[in-house]
Amino acid sequence: MKERLKSWTLVLLVASSLVQTYFLIYRLPGSDSVLTSETNYVKTESMGQEKKIENLVFPDRMLIHQGEKKHTVFYPGVTFYDLIYRRLESRSFNNFQRRSIQSADWARIRSENEGIELSFSGGVPVSLLERVMRLTPDSVFQGETINRIWIYIDEKNAKPHALFFSARGDVVYEANQFDMTVEDIRQHVNFGKNAPLYKLVNNQYYIPVNDLETVQPVVYAGLFTTEQMQRNLFFDPGITRNIQEKDGSQIYTDSKRSLQIKQDQRWMSYTDPSAPGADGSSPIRDVLAAVDFVNQHGGWDASYQMKLRSSDENRTSVMFQQYYGAYPVLDTPSFRFGTISLQIQQETASVYDRSLLYLKGGEQSSKKVLLPGGEVLEKQLQTVGEGKTIRDLAPVYQPELINDGLKLVPEWRVAFSDGSVAEIHAVPVTTASNTTSTKSDQETKR
Fold first, then answer.
1. What is residue 127's three-state secondary structure?
2. What's the mean pLDDT when you consider all of the chain?
């Protein structure tokens, strides 16, 4: 009898221990479960998709050089862009040799030789590029940041070359061994034969020879609530207190972290002053931590491109640029949308900024518009530039809030060497006059 009583007592003690363990791990019934990710971030309710760094590193444009000063530009999500890029991802590059940027006449080579050029605005560290391309680790350029990859055929001796340009602008690295033949490169170049032609201006930026037909979509959008973000960012939202600022914004804090909600801008800014201090930050690990943090605290509602803003021994600043179809979506002072920004210190997020607006998926409507090209565009560039030197020209989407959605208006974004920018707007197809419309697949969705 005593032995049976002891056995039952032991069973009750074990059961009680299991119940207590359950409550400690999963809180109280009805509350959100708390699961810890690999980087010790707290996994909260699902608000968006999760992504890997491999999904966030890609060229902002692909240039197809056809020789005889003929060029084509493909943007992310376009059929031939995706096809060529997938093939390049499977190719291997190794045995790198460092060269001075002055070692060749690149303008002449670009104009006369067939090739493919990938542009990464802002640059990508080699250690991250190795995650999306087969680059054999090489001490010669392991610590570099690359902003251009250029694979071309030397027409004089029918020899292929693969070049990786430093974002610093002073050196270029040539892969002396890579598994692409002249025929491989020429096949990729041929994909651009029937695409809209571009011309290189001042060896700096490209403009289409004719107008580009694209689309102006109206997409469905939703709005994250303050309560969602509180549950998403605080370990215990129940102990947060609210502070109202003079500008109308709301601040929620648990005495350590703070969440500022700007309802008029539909924008949030989260700060964690308790993040580890200086010394020992690794840019690559910080970028991976930033991706993991977004995965666990809001997720991704669309395609995003990683842009490394700055990095030092104290912190890493990284921005993720939103894309819709082939073009990036602008984040402007008057309408905050299209970017997710973080500051990371020793793999811990100290600042996290993003829009409360998110894309639900699907379009309410869409209409065709024309981005001007050729002589019309050249004249407009002279007008908006007012004598300034143009550094870059790129198509973008300007977002406008309408009812329960966003209208994405295509425009040319003109960047000048002094840091200023200007816009050249698209025009409806029905009102365009004296234009030669070239149908392109630039509106293909990513």
1. helix
2. 85
Listed residue (254, 269, 264) closest to 351, CA to CA: 269
Give the count of alpha carbons within 13 A of 426, CB side only.
25
Rounded distance, CA 76 to CA 303, Å?
Answer: 10
Strand, coil or helix: 156: coil
Are 308 and 287 within 8 A, CB to CB?
yes
Q: Are 261 and 252 in contact (CB under 8 A)?
A: yes
Cβ pair 337, 399 in contact under 8 A: yes
State how far the Cα of 295 lies from the Cα of 288, in Å rounded to an integer.
Answer: 11
Mark out the alpha helices in 196-257 (DSSP H runs).
Answer: 226-233
Rounded CA-CA distance 124/144 in Å is: 8
Rounded to whole angstroms, what are the CA distances from 323 to 306, 327, 377?
Answer: 11, 6, 24
419: Cβ–Cβ under 8 A, 6 or more apart, which residues?
none
Three-point CA angle 274, 278, 279, nearest 5°? 135
Of 64, 58, 67, 116, the C-alpha closest to 326 is 58
- Name, in order, each residue with C-beta under 8 angstroms of 226's C-beta and a sequence gap of 6 or more: 250, 252, 261
Give the amino acid at 214.
T
pTM for this entry: 0.83
Q: How far apart are CA 307 and CA 319, in angstroms?
A: 5
Alpha-carbon dihedral angle through residues 138, 143, 149, 150, given to the nearest 10 degrees? -60
**What are the pLDDT digits (tens) for 286-324?**
999 999 999 999 999 999 999 998 877 788 999 999 999
DSSP reduced 3-state for 33: coil
Cα-to-chain-centroid distance, residue 359 = 16
- Give Cβ neighbours of residue 240 (< 8 Å, ≥ 6 apart): 230, 234, 252, 253, 254, 259
Percent of the chain with pLDDT over 70: 84
**What per-residue confidence (pLDDT) applies to 276?**
77
